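User: structure tokens for Nucleolar protein 9, please.
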Amino acid sequence: MGKNRKSKRQLVRDEKRAKKRGLEIEHEEERDIKKQRREEEAHQDAFAPVTDAGYVPPPLDGTYDENAFPGGPEEGRRNGPNTNFEREFFGMLAEQEQEYFRHADELLELNDFPSTEERDIFLQNVYKELRGKELKVASSQSCSRLMERLILLSNTRQKKSLFDAFGGHFISLVTHRFASHCCEKLFLQSAPVVTQELSGEYEQEPLPEGEEETEAMKSSMEDLFLLTLDELEEHLGYLLTDRFGSHAIRALLVILSGRPLDQAGTKSMLQSRKKEYITVEGAAANQSELSSQIRAVPSSFTMAIKKIIDDSTMTMDATALRVLAKHPTGNPTLQLLLELELTMFVKGKEKKEKNKQKKDDEEAEEKKEETQSEVTLLGMLVPDAPAAFADNTTQAAEFVNSMIYDPIGSRLLETLITHCPGKIFKGLQQHIFGPRIQSLLRNDIACYPAIKVLNRLSREDLADAVEKSLPEMASFVDKGRFNVIRTLFERCHIRNGTDEINALLKALTSAYGNDWKKLVPKLCMLDEDVVEEEQKPDPKFQTQEAKNKAFMLNHGCQLVAALLAIPGQPSKAIQASLAALKPAQVMKMATTSHNTSSILVKALQTPATNPTFHKVLVSSLLPHVYELATSQQGSAVLNEIISLPSKPAEPNAPAVPFHMKENIISQLANYESELRETWLGRNVWRTWKGDMWSHRRHDWVRWAKETDPETARVAAIPRKREEKEKEEAEKKPKGYLGKNFDPKKLKGFAAKKFEKKEAEA
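Assistant: Done. Predicted tokens:
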């Protein structure tokens, strides 16, 4: 047989295709560079013209160009327009270099190396090839992902070498579309090293043969971060509103503050929802534990944060701050600056002042004058607070009122309400939020700052807010403000407001026809057609109506879960509603979405107000065991059942009868081959120990009863009658003569002995 060889025509065609593909990649990079330059030029042209006369006032209609320099036209006059630096172009990689780095990226993405030593050797070879081309690779569309993966797998010495390569070019890199992601990754991955060096736990890696040690490798990571900040310092005003640079500034602020890097709130602050998640298989195991906890940072980092806040706000006036507060890019950075100032400096000063004893009245007055003379970001946003909140014409009151209903500015207001000192919060509550709390809770934007206010209210103020909100309960339900209702219930439970909880439950039930059974079907939308999570389209292609329905379902399920966690009437109402559901509705809850299935899991974990509650809930699921086992949401409900005991340890404690567990495992055994074909089915089969059931059933029974109380695990062993009587006699108190003892029936010696004992007693 002849060998399958390509013809000459096919080889020529493949060569043409490869050249065409290479040209397309080059053209794509050129187009991206030209597009970025056009955007920069357009951004520069957006600046308001500034004359030598000084400040250019905003238009009379109250509008302001959000693309203007965040420091206002005065800063533009002093520092020049936003382009007070020249964006560098680092050149393009050759075709062979691109091919090499692309292949290295594929190998690193799989991370399928025989051992860590071979991977380290491969990384060293890549770094040798990368030497002198770091800036080109970081700013390349096709190879910047390689740089991010290299940073994930690099040791401390290699990270310091990248700081050395990027040094002097950070302002161009952090504002670049692709290189900015590499800088963020380098900052975040290097943050734990600062704490390790500070505590003395860091050990220097050995220098590879043939490599010279640079000055950056000898320097500490703290010094490298401070040098980076020095380089970015003069451009902070521009970076606050830059599309890419603002993310790098936020990352640096989080690192300097020592906050955890892996928390969900931190990640949402640092990156947008559209950001591509670059990772390496198995790289998560190499990450330091310091990323998920509060880190110790040197004092120089705290001073750097203070300097960044001062430099960022020094050249701004009230108008520029309002523009920045409503700027979609500048607002998150301003939130972080305000939060750091309030948590690290304002509250720290208050604690110190309380702990220190004032020696003289004169010294106390001098301290007050000094603190009043200091210009802070909080003081610029709400000057003369809290006294200024009493007058609606003051700058502080106007700022708060203008931000309440703004979709972007309200987020800054949430940060202010959450972290501001108690005196300022009392002024906000007394003059702005308290009198109209019920109308603010009705609004789809203002309800979020109002919820933050509810979280800080005292017992008396919360009772007043609940009293004002009770007549609006029907409106809350119609508009889908379930997050507002949930917050009211949770805060009343924390503040031990039993009367308020009962009043809220009564108002909520009346909005649904005074019937507890309607709560879960209405709040979880069981009567409406809801698309399952597996069949949902991409969020980009969802209609606004579908998105609103998803949000309402999410908030409704959160409300049900909150009511279920509150003992007393709220938990009783939700359990009664769950017990009244039809089997089809329970099955829909278990398989439709994670929000609804989590309610069933929590219901199985909650103590029952009705002894048959858990039994009724599980019996509704018994006919659909296979469907639950192969469902992503239903499998979690099924796995929760086996973790519950068969007999309750205490009255009304969660329990599922053992015969129901046997019924479920026998049904799973009938579908064993089908379950083994899917990952979810294998997970359920493993959790229920199906192999043990098939081969060693008596061991499975013993294992299934391990969750039962100690005395209820096995049946009692038959014993002799004499042993039983002996045990019963030992349990009886001394001198016990039985229930039916009658001393009048005693005769002779027994009667005399009883009389003697009675006389002695």
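User: Anything notable?

Assistant: The chain has a mean pLDDT of 80.
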